[in-house]
Amino acid sequence: MLSFNKRYFVMNTLKVITVIVLILTVNGIYGKLSYSKTNATNWLVIGGFPARDGQYPYQVSLRNPSDNRHFCSGSIVRLYWVLTAGHCVDNRNSSSVVIVVGTNHLDENGTKYEVSNIVLHEEYNGYPNYTNDIALLKIRKRISYSSKVRPVSLGNINIAASTSCTLSGWGFTTSSSLLYPNELQHVTLTTISNIQCQEALYPYSIQTSNLCTYENGKRACNGDSGSPLMCRGQQHGIVSWGKNCNEGNPDVYTNVPYYREWIRNKTGA
To answer: What residue ranges are annotated as transmembrane (predicted)?
Structure first.
């Protein structure tokens, strides 16, 4: 199914061909098509709004070195390590990714770091189930911390359903958009049980390694992949996949606590 395979594709019949061509041209799964300046009347990340400068100091933008285009997000976990979704870097090599830290704006450079190694989960599997959708990026030069650049705290215990969480990212801000917002957006979402999630997304498979959220009119979209979901001050999710931005469906995340031992083994975090 196209919308699932490419995750959050805009299913507007007048635009879908353009979206597919642009996204596949950039990186095969997601691509930064463009970005737009935000005005005060927009409610953005679908249903979200602009974050304060430095509000999410662990958030990073993954970009193409050749044109500085954003294609996914990630989070700083240690001085040399960034956490992201596996599908963001599947079929990429380290020279095809740079990370940008310390800025909320895609038109500002922030501080750029080269990637020396991509550690994709050994049992990652893409479409149709996107199992073990997690990866780590080893940074060539240690990340310099500041008030706007800090590591995230990772969750160790599964979060319960009905927990209020926050998603931040640069994904599409409407279901029909072809523009990424220039400013980092954030939105409050509520976790649901995996059983509820499975019922809503059947026949697609929800696994014990997943976490789901649902909030009417609020959700992730193209460009939010790899973004952190924060619950009670800790990262519990990594944006993985969803079914159409414009429909009342849950969002699916890689469940960080499920992979804590894997992350620890690779990074020491």
So the answer is: none
| 3-class DSSP assignment, residue 94 | helix
According to DSSP, the residues that pair with 100 across neighbouring strands are 61, 112
Looking at the chain, which residues constitute the CATH 2.40.10.10 domain(s)?
34-50+153-257, 59-151+260-267
Which comes out higher in pLDDT, residue 168 or 11? 168
- Alpha carbon 80 to its chain centroid, in Å, reads 19
Task: Give 107-162 pLDDT, tens digit per residue.
Answer: 887 999 999 999 999 999 988 889 999 999 999 999 999 999 999 999 999 999 99
CATH of region 59-151+260-267, choose from 3.60.21.10, 3.50.50.60, 2.60.40.1820, 2.40.10.10: 2.40.10.10
Supply the residues annotated as catalytic: 87, 133, 225
Torsion of CA 183, 259, 240, 181, to 10 degrees: 0
Q: Which residues of 71-105 are buried (b: 16+ CB within 10 A; e: fewer)?
A: bbbbbbbbebbbbbbbbbbbebebeebbbbbbbbb
Which distant-in-sequence residues (6+ apart) come within 8 Å of 238 by Cβ?
Answer: 75, 83, 84, 85, 133, 134, 226, 227, 228, 229, 253, 254, 256
CATH placement of domain 34-50+153-257? 2.40.10.10
User: Contact 227/106 with Cβ under 8 angstroms?
Assistant: no
pLDDT band at 178 (very low <50, low <70, confident <90, very high): low
**The two structure tokens encoding residue 75:** 């989070």
Q: Give me the amino acid identity at 65.
A: P
pLDDT higher than threshold 70 for residue 23 = no
Q: How far is CA 27 from CA 20, 69, 185, in A?
A: 11, 11, 23
Tokens linked to 52: 């304060």
